């Protein structure tokens, strides 16, 4: 944890693809146990920002501190070495819209792969951890099933269990329910709600406004590559200040 109590501090993050500046100095500080939801129109930079938080994208400018891992980006930056990147990524779990499970592996193997291959955990210990996590996401009976036999909601719950198996300090979710049939959304949201109740630190991108209002400690509105508004759910969702945010929210009524 940092001196200011934050477990994740992103400061002035800039990211461009060619001459397209997608993030124009985005800052976000997340305290341990907070759930921060990012909302905003398609193309506003939400996914790029999340990907910068685990360095799937390398920002061109700014600073990032997660737990004890610190990076300063910029022209003078020495290339971050692979070991340093790997350590940061280990402490940040990520769940995507499309579940990205390994199709040729059983559900249990999907979950144990990271702890065994990356952390060197004994397979027997990883299996025990994997079974505990499957129980936690309500899939205790699916350990030996292959992903192709699961519904979208079940696949996403496996993806969450897989990310949790690395015991991350922070979990990032990028539209975890957007690819799901409506009747499967609730089962995934309820797993995320359970993690929030346990005090997991999370940054989440979603269009599920009622859920965001309910589960988030803060909600940030991204617009054209900046954090245009951020506050409590009450402030951001119920009392939006800018016309842009009002217009964005009106689509969900
Ligand atoms: P959001 O998640 O809010 O919809 P994104 O972060 O996915 O927004 O995208 C923001 C902008 O960045 C879009 O214009 C998108 O086309 C662009 N972008 C994202 N990733 C890349 C990439 N790898 N290469 C080029 N442009 C990209
Ligand atoms: Mg996106």
Automatic annotation (TrEMBL):
InterPro entries: AAA+_ATPase, ABC_ATPase_HisP-typ, ABC_transporter-like_ATP-bd, ABC_transporter-like_CS, MetN_ABC_transporter-like, P-loop_NTPase. The keyword Membrane applies. Gene3D superfamilies: P-loop containing nucleotide triphosphate hydrolases. It is found in: Cell membrane. It is a peripheral membrane protein. This is ATP-binding protein. Involved in beta-(1-->2)glucan export. Transmembrane domains (TMD) form a pore in the inner membrane and the ATP-binding domain (NBD) is responsible for energy generation. It comes from Bradyrhizobium centrolobii. Belongs to the ABC transporter superfamily. GO terms for molecular function: ABC-type amino acid transporter activity; ATP binding; ATP hydrolysis activity. CDD domains: ABC_HisP_GlnQ (cd03262).
């Amino acid at each position: 944890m940092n001196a200011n109590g934050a477990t994740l501090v992103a400061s002035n993050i800039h990211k461009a693809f060619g001459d397209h500046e997608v993030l124009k100095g985005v800052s976000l500080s997340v305290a341990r146990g907070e759930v921060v939801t990012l909302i905003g129109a398609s193309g506003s930079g939400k996914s790029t920002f999340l990907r910068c938080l685990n360095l799937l994208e390398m920002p061109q400018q700014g600073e990032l501190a997660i737990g004890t891992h610190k990076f300063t980006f910029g022209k003078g930056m020495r290339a971050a070495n692979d070991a340093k990147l790997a350590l940061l990524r280990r402490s940040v779990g990520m769940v995507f819209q499309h579940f990205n499970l390994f199709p040729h592996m059983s559900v249990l193997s999907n979950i144990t792969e990271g702890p065994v291959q990356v952390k060197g955990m004994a397979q027997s210990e990883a299996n025990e951890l994997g079974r505990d996590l499957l129980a936690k996401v309500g899939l205790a009976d699916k350990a030996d099933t292959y992903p192709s036999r699961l519904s979208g909601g079940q696949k996403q719950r496996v993806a969450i269990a897989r990310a949790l198996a690395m015991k991350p300090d922070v979990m990032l979710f990028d539209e975890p329910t957007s690819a799901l049939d409506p009747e499967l959304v609730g089962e995934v949201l309820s797993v995320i709600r359970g993690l929030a109740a346990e005090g997991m630190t999370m940054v989440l991108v979603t269009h599920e406004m009622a859920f965001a209002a309910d589960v988030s400690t803060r909600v940030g509105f991204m617009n054209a590559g900046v954090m245009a508004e951020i506050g409590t759910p009450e402030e951001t969702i119920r009392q939006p200040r800018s016309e842009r945010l009002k217009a964005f929210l009106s689509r969900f009524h």
